[in-house]
Amino acid sequence: MVYIRCDLCQSDRYITIEAMGRFRHPVTNVVCCQCGLVFQNPRLENGELNSFYANHFSEDLYGLIGADLMSVIDGHRFNYIRNYIKENFSEYDPRRMKILEIGCGHGGLMKLLEKDGYCVEGIEPSISLCKSSCDKGLKVYNCFLEDFVSRHRFDLVLAFHVIEHTSSAVTFMKKINSLLDDKGRVVIETPDVWHLYGDPHTGRDYLFRKDHTFTFSENSLGFLASLTGFNSRPIKRLTPRHIWFEFNREESTQRQTPLLQDRYEDIVCHVFNYRAHFSWRQRILTTERLIILQSLILKLVGQKGLKNIKAFLRKIGIYRLIEKIRS
């Protein structure tokens, strides 16, 4: 395990907001006190991450979702992307349009796009998933994005639930930028930190996971775009809890919207409130969370003064939490 700085602003000031992940795996997530990015810290070293995705990720993914449900999801994404292309690439001939899907999995979406006449290539680090895609006759490279080399540029890059798994989102987006055509676009889907889901007490279907190195918001994705040479905008979502976001190279030097950042205090309150109000009957105030709360209070005392602590505790519902546990 390795401790890291914030990937966006390089700050080393952060506060722990969660010490448990899905299935009660010990996973520590923190929020940057400078820009509000939520990330896993400490996390696996790069070599360990690469080994996990190459050899074990397919088992974890399809053990949770299942191939049949994944096919349904691919169908919804295909309909969405086909409409998106019609709206944003109206002058393009589908037979000449080049699309790259990063983290293409078993190739379900690629196959649908290929049948629709598009020239599609894929990148998949999982050995078993890459083999499954190649068996379908698809052009898929078994590598990580940073190792990918192409002789041509792409008009559209797709990355669904990939960016939250990277070791550096900044490096990831800079690499994509180098692969895009001058008017190229990127569409990503990723969990939204402002739409938490799952059971934070049992870990069932919990948003925070051992393989999620980042948890973004629309604001943090906009900040990421500004750091990597893109203009950006949120686009229509398929589900409320997952962000759909577009990065594009058009007018990237002139931002169309003001750059916003999340306040770390708001994210801390949001996460603690979610846990406190999820299910009182199932609520277990573990030793780990008490340690987190104690550390949080001490840091806030140093930063904001003692007079604000009582109001902060009321805001995150700790008083109500203790009363419920006692009853």
From TrEMBL:
SUPFAM superfamilies attached to this UniProt entry: S-adenosyl-L-methionine-dependent methyltransferases
Q: Which domain of life is it from?
A: Bacteria
The record's section on InterPro entries has:
SAM-dependent_MTases_sf
Q: Which PANTHER family match?
A: METHYLTRANSFERASE TYPE 11, TRANS-ACONITATE 2-METHYLTRANSFERASE-RELATED
Q: What is this protein called?
A: Class I SAM-dependent methyltransferase
Source organism of the structure: Velamenicoccus archaeovorus
